């Protein structure tokens, strides 16, 4: 696929000219969007949130020049479901993505789900994704190719821009992609970085076979993709942050020069392990602190480019996919005050994979000079689910029909006109006790109800805690008990007063989901789906400038312009 004689940027330019000619006209100037998603970042990893953190001067400046959201939540507390919800505005029980995809996954985010990139592209946007994808990389689930497939060309001909003999055009989700198809610990590298437990480097030709480690990928090297081409395998982790910054700057420059509005989705490798800080750890900050500083500098670089090239019309939104990975101990992030004390007392983690606040309450900053108030702190109950409908509304586009959305258009909160968000927010199980994807906790105003707790999310000491079902549910008042330490007494007036409202909200949510147009993700695995640059070489290693193109199984009946 692709046109080998053209650079990725030349191919991108041609495709966007064709799409832009047929994009619907939108009155007014559409804003640019930069969405930065950190991986496994803790609420307390920002100095603006937690005074003990000193490694984030650029993010703290972003907070000072924009609005900080302190009650902001991921839609799930693990990678794939959270990212699927971000890009669809729908919970995993609706979009079908309830747990993580594997390196051999044949499927991904269901193709009948419409992503934010698809909506914005149809509204005339240049769309780029840089970084971790983790929503399926095989066939049409690749970020360049997912969506409704290739158009017949009739629409373009009707616009008068294609003749009867012109090739068909692929209307893909993202015009440009540069990054890794899944987490950067899901493949070996030559310089593995810091991890717990440590993982060995990739095997080389002629080396003796090693005993496989449960927590390490030793057989297949981690690939780096530019569009559908593997450009490096294994990835050089130490330079990945720099390459992401360079590609992001290049995309912003290109989009700015093209005159079209752009959407850049930058999904960082930070702060997921293994950590590869560019310099030795600074005393008192440790490895994690050094890596946090690297992430902060990367965000600062993107802001600088946006300020320079975004023409004063660029919204930058920074947040995280879920809370810290507690079992990584000193290599995990900072929870701030959200320690989930009730669970900790019984063993197990209260962070990533759980429905405790530390698992899904994440940092969030929005910066848009002249539009989003500077130096403001919002306490509105918001979610990563809100990004989809909010950006769609700001772009002057329409939400896809025939489905329900869990996110809200929170433009009025961004602009400081309101501080009211969700009345009810649902928290699905992301790998702890219960069935993955099912709604196991619910937020109603300041009250948090748990129907299932424990087992599945490992703490630093190796404990997981007992699995427990709660009927009636545990209920915490977060206004008084942000550490989630002591649930309300079931016999108390407060508990009895709030339980009926919580029960109604829970029942209504389940009924709404059951009646919706829900999708089912394909979680089957196929060894042929593993990205491999050179099947003849141990670990799929590429030699020098050797590259390989992924097989996206596109029908070859007619020549097509596909990225």
UniProtKB/TrEMBL annotation:
Domain Sulfatase N-terminal as annotated: residue spans: 31-397
Co-factor(s): Ca(2+)
CDD domains attached to this UniProt entry: ARSG (cd16161)
SUPFAM superfamilies in the record: Alkaline phosphatase-like
Gene Ontology terms for molecular function: arylsulfatase activity; metal ion binding
Pfam families attached to this UniProt entry: Sulfatase (PF00884), Sulfatase_C (PF14707)
Keywords: Calcium, Hydrolase, Metal-binding, Signal
N-terminal signal peptide: 1-28
Similarity comment: Belongs to the sulfatase family.
PANTHER family linked: ARYLSULFATASE FAMILY MEMBER, ARYLSULFATASE G
Annotated protein name in UniProt: ARSG Arylsulfatase
Species of provenance: Notiomystis cincta
Gene: Arsg
């Amino acid at each position: 696929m692709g046109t080998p004689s053209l650079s990725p940027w030349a191919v991108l330019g041609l495709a966007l000219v064709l799409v832009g000619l047929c994009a619907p006209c939108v009155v007014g100037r559409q804003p640019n969007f930069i969405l930065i998603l950190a991986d496994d970042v803790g609420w307390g990893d920002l100095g603006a949130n937690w005074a003990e953190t000193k490694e984030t001067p650029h993010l703290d400046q972003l907070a000072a020049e924009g609005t900080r959201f302190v009650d902001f939540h991921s839609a799930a507390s693990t990678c794939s479901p959270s990212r699927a919800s971000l890009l669809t505005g729908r919970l995993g029980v609706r979009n079908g993505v309830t747990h993580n995809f594997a390196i051999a996954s044949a499927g991904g985010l269901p193709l009948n789900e419409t992503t934010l990139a698809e909506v914005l592209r149809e509204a005339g946007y240049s769309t780029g994704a840089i970084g971790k994808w983790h929503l399926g990389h095989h066939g049409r689930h690749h970020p360049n190719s997912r969506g409704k497939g290739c158009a017949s060309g009739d629409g373009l001909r009707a616009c008068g821009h294609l003749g009867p003999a012109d090739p068909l055009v692929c209307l893909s989700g993202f015009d440009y992609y540069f990054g890794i198809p899944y987490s950067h610990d899901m493949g070996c590298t030559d310089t593995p970085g810091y991890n717990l437990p440590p993982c060995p480097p990739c095997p080389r030709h002629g080396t003796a076979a090693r005993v496989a480690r449960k927590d390490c990928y030793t057989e297949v090297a981690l690939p780096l993709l530019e569009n559908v081409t593997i450009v490096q395998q294994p990835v050089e982790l130490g330079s990945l942050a720099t390459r992401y910054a360079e590609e992001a700057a290049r995309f912003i420059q290109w989009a700015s020069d093209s005159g079209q509005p752009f959407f850049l989705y930058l999904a960082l490798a930070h702060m997921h392990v293994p950590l590869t800080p560019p310099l030795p750890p600074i005393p008192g900050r440790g490895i994690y602190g050094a890596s946090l500083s690297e992430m902060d500098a990367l965000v600062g670089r993107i802001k600088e480019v946006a300020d320079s090239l975004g023409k004063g019309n660029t919204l930058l939104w920074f947040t995280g996919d879920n809370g810290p990975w507690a079992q990584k101990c000193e290599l995990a992030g900072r929870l701030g005050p959200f320690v989930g004390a009730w669970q900790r007392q019984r063993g197990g983690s209260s962070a990533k994979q759980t429905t405790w606040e530390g698992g899904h309450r994440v940092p969030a900053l929005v910066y848009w000079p002249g539009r989003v108030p500077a130096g403001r702190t919002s306490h509105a109950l918001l979610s990563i689910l809100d990004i989809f409908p909010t950006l769609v509304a700001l772009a002057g586009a329409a939400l896809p029909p025939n489905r329900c959305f869990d996110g809200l258009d929170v433009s009025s909160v961004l602009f400081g006109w309101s501080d009211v968000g969700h009345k009810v927010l649902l928290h699905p199980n992301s790998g702890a006790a219960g069935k993955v994807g099912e709604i196991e906790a619910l937020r109603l105003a300041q009250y948090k109800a748990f129907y299932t707790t424990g087992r599945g999310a490992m703490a630093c000491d190796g404990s997981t805690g007992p699995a427990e079902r709660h009927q009636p549910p545990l209920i915490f008042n977060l206004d008084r008990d942000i550490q989630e330490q002591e649930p309300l007494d079931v016999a108390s007036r407060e508990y009895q007063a709030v339980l009926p409202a919580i029960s109604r909200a829970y029942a209504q949510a389940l009924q709404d989901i059951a009646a919706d147009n829900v999708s089912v993700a394909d979680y089957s695995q196929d060894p042929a789906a593993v990205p491999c640059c050179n099947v003849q070489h141990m670990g799929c290693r590429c030699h020098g400038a050797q590259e390989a193109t992924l097989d996206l199984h596109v029908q070859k009946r007619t020549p097509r312009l596909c990225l």
